[in-house]
């Protein structure tokens, strides 16, 4: 028999998931204005009652806080969960080569952003962060979670590539710069089809080879890494 607590948790997650689906269908304007308790409860799978909604979140403020935490959980950003394993596997490979590792990981990350609907929700919440301390703190927390996973991998990758950070840069500033570059390019490429997203020129000094494409992010990221680091 399902416990009362387990049933409550199932209802909570079902209604949060339904709310996220509602937003994906119309992610414009005030993102919270679309989320009526009766509609969220009705769209849950299986449907819940409005009473069930208010039993979990007595006020709209309670729901809004929980919903922000749900949307900005690392669980919803698949590419940010997958990239650490991809990089870790490459760093541990006997055939490791820094240029190819950067190209492969950067291409996968940039392509993953284009496929991840959660990115649009993140941008919508980012627009409200200035006036909402909770959203701002949760966005920072999401970036910190990703950074905590990636910083040791950046250090290992550079070490295997016989490079180190160039003073005054650190792996922290490198990580922040790469994420900012990826997200900014993603937004621009989404609205400007003229920008060659996945078929860009290789970085200077790297020959173009069939079967080894460079995305715009991968090419610029490689140059950024080379400028922020130096040979050991």
Descriptive account of the structure:
The protein is elongated. The chain is built from ten helices and two strands. The chain has a two-stranded antiparallel sheet with strand order 1-2. The protein has helices at about 5-25, 35-45, 50-55, 60-70, 80-90, 100-115, 120-125, 135-160, 170-190, 215-230, and strands at about 165, 230. It has about 230 residues and is mainly alpha-helical. The longest helix is centred in the middle third of the chain and has 28 residues, at about 135-160. It folds into two domains: about 5-65; about 75-230, Tetracycline Repressor, domain 2, CATH 1.10.357. Helices cover about 65% and strands about 5% of the residues.
Query: What's the helical proportion of residues?
Result: 55-70%
Separation of termini?
61 Å
Strand content: under 5%
What's the gyration radius in Å?
A: 21 Å
Class derived from helix and strand content:
mainly alpha
CATH class of the largest domain: Mainly Alpha
Number of domains: 2
CATH structural architecture of the largest domain:
Orthogonal Bundle
Helix segment tally? 10
The SSE string, one letter per element, is HHHHHHHHEHHE
Rough outline: elongated
CATH topology name of the largest domain, in short, is Tetracycline Repressor, domain 2
Low-confidence stretches: none
Total DSSP E strands = 2
Side by side, the strands of the main sheet go 1-2
